[in-house]
Amino acid sequence: MIGRRRLQPAENGTKLKEHMILEKKHRLDLSCYAGYVRASFTICIKNRKHVFINPYIVENFIDIFASSIKQHLCVNWVYLFMPDHFHFILEGTSLDANIWKAVVLFKQKTGYWFSKNMPEVQWQKDFFDYLQRKERDLKDHIFYILNNPVRGEIVKNWNDYPYKGSLDLSLHEIIC
Questions:
Q1: 53-72, pLDDT tens digit by residue?
Q2: Where are the domains of the chain?
Q3: 76 with 90: CB under 8 angstroms?
Q4: Residue 86, CA atoms < 13 Å, CB-side half-sphere
Q5: Quick one: pLDDT at residue 16?
Q6: 28-175: which CATH architecture?
Q7: Do residues 58 and 163 lie in contact, with contact meaning Cβ atoms separated by under 8 Å?
Q8: Residue 84 and residue 73 in contact, taking contact as beta carbons nearer than 8 Å
Q9: Are 150 and 156 in contact (CB under 8 A)?
């Protein structure tokens, strides 16, 4: 558990009392994200604001994503920008690769972009991830990601959704 301190008024309302708020540690040890590792990630916009409906923003974020994963020696199997969140799968390409560092760098660079261009928008504090240990997991997660806009009733077929792709591979080759 990770502790954070918060001040609250005492019962009589005159003095502030300090309380510890405990947060459950949910992240694996950072060494689990290094090397030849593959994981799927979801990063959400704070307060679920619809940001990724503008092609200009998505194109900028794809460029930042590409440079972030390249810097940390990762390949991208699939990505998909939903209006208020971002799904993707990364895999390390060497022992020096680090998918966690790639994600953190992406969030930092895009957070800076938000602060300069859309100061009312921020990422949520953390992100969700799932380390994939089986080959079957890969195809299942790719289909899950690609069908997100279908489940969200944005399109009838995932092929019709514009903000998806793979930076390093052909989606049609992957899923066929």
A1: 999 999 999 999 999 999 99
A2: 28-175
A3: yes
A4: 23
A5: 54
A6: 2-Layer Sandwich (3.30)
A7: yes
A8: no
A9: yes
